[in-house]
Amino acid sequence: MQRTILHIDLDAFFCSVELLRNPALEGKPFIVGGKPGSRGVVASASYSARTFGIHSAMPTSQAVRLCPELVIVPSSHGNYGEYSDNVMSLLRDSAPIVEQISIDEAFLDVSDAPESGESLARELQIDIGSRFGLPTSWGVATSKLVAKIGSEIGKPKGLVVIPPGGEANFLAPLPVDMLWGIGPKSRDRFHKSGIKTIGDLAALSSVELSARFGERGLELAGMARGVDRRKVHEGHTRRSISSERTFPRNVSDETELLRMMRSISEDLGARLRKKGLAGITIRLKLRWPNFETMTRQIRLDQPTDQDAEIYTAAVKLFKKSWKKGQKVRLLGVGVANLGLRIRQLDLFDRSWEKDERLLDAIDKIRARFGGQALTRARNLEAKVRRQEEDP
User: Fold this and answer.
1) Which residue, of 22, 51, 77, is where some domain finishes?
2) Residues 104-154: tens digit of each pLDDT
3) Would you please indicate which residues are annotated as catalytic (active-site) residues?
4) To bridge 138 with a disulfide, which of 69, 159, 162, 227 should be the other Cys (CB 3.0-4.6 Å)?
5) What pTM value is reported for the model?
6) What stretches of the chain adopt beta strand conformation (E)?
7) Which residues pair with 100 in a beta bridge?
8) Residues 253 and 207 in one domain
9) Where does a domain end: 159, 194, 224?
10) Containing domain of residue 18, as a range?
């Protein structure tokens, strides 16, 4: 299966948070860091400051020499941690597997998502900006390596998509030190050997690479062609799961919206059952054409992993939130407060057992023959109608 990996980088994260706390810093060259007289260093530099050659890890005294009018803001790590937690929580609600690698970076594996990686990245970029006021850059690729380089190339506020098969061409013109593991010393060594770009490295034969750089040379050659089989590893206990769809054009038809809601609910139910989890809180997310986003949630009597129960709760929230004829850009459903699947028994109502057997059979068929192996008759009818209306 073709992988789809996203990499998110919160642009100049510490500075972005300080800008939210003090908008008067807008447009000014400033850093977050220590004082120049106390061996302070730059933790984060605003993009205005970077035009003077200032960068992170630089001594603050040197930064002030480069830009005498530089504003120095002391760090407030508690605020950075809070913003980071909020963003990472949103990411975990939006993707099946999220690997946080630092306070301001994460990988997302969305290979199983029905939407394209570009669409998911774009919506999350908008969501993080509107909810938290933070700019982000994104890379979308088939591997962690290429996705991360993509987000680096796109800074600030960028979204770079590297299509499958295009990894080597994308990497070829880039400086060789953009590959992970190549620092200043390794870069200088490569430059002395005439290797200045990633393409130069990729062009060398295996024999030549082994002779020059040993086993490390072969590993870097694979990276230069975009080869990176490392998986995205979830390093956090999942507390919620969600799925959302962005419509190609705004939708105001209630039947179509409910049909999509049912499809999402079925997807969530299948994912929960596969992991042996159930959740007691159902969430609904609606985004209007002006990008304003509304979220609602409801708590059930007991945890569920059942498609119908998720859908019924989502519809209840939808009816309270949506006005007839109102256009919708994005629709999402989530299940939160997850735990092991345990259902309280009711001696007089065992209907859920029949539902569980049916869903178990459906899950097995879809696992074997694909997600579209079974679909509701009403969905097929709707598809035929759409084809007749838009041949």
Assistant:
1) 77
2) 999 999 998 888 999 999 999 999 999 999 999 999 999 999 999 999 999
3) 105
4) 159
5) 0.71
6) 5-10, 30-33, 42-45, 71-73, 97-102, 105-109, 136-141, 159-161, 240-251, 277-287, 293-304, 328-340
7) 106
8) no
9) 224
10) 14-77
